[in-house]
Amino acid sequence: ADLPEHAREALVRSFQRFELGEGGDGVHLLRKARGRGAFQQEALRMLVAEEQQHSRLFRRGLQHMDAHTLVSHWSDRIFTRLRRSLGLRTELALFLTAEAVAMPYFVVLARSGPNEVIRGIGTRIALDEEHHLAFQIDQLKQGLASLSIPVRALVFAAWWCVAVGAATVVAIDHGPALRVCGMPVRAYWGAALRSFRR
Known about the structure:
- The protein is mostly helical.
- The chain contains eight helices and no strands.
């Protein structure tokens, strides 16, 4: 990739973290889905497969920039531990939060990435994530409908705290890559929370 070194370094650092985060095997999620309908189990299996495809796309981007993948990262370890400690509905809510706050990142990669390969990766992932968000929203609507209004209000308040934290982590961790694509970190942060609100 013929990129200025500061741009390459920023994108490599960012892609390494996303490649790691998108590459989970989904074993725990799929185990939690046992006993659900066959349709939901198959849909979740397909969701995991698409996330793994995103990991391969980020890996391809790293190869394009002559860089390696990471074995682990603190943000991935914390997110994975949190997801696995909770039930299926909460795990889907965390997935939804992570994907909603990451959408502006994928969109800016697609529109303003520094070369065709980077833009192609952003485009493919952003298109997939639109469908993932719609699927997860449908799944969560069914689960949240049975909650009382006060409990639902508490859930949404806690959920907003998680979203603000997730957007802040992405803004700090991926800020240099966002700037390479022409998006100031504050603009990303606002876009991430608007994406989550939608």
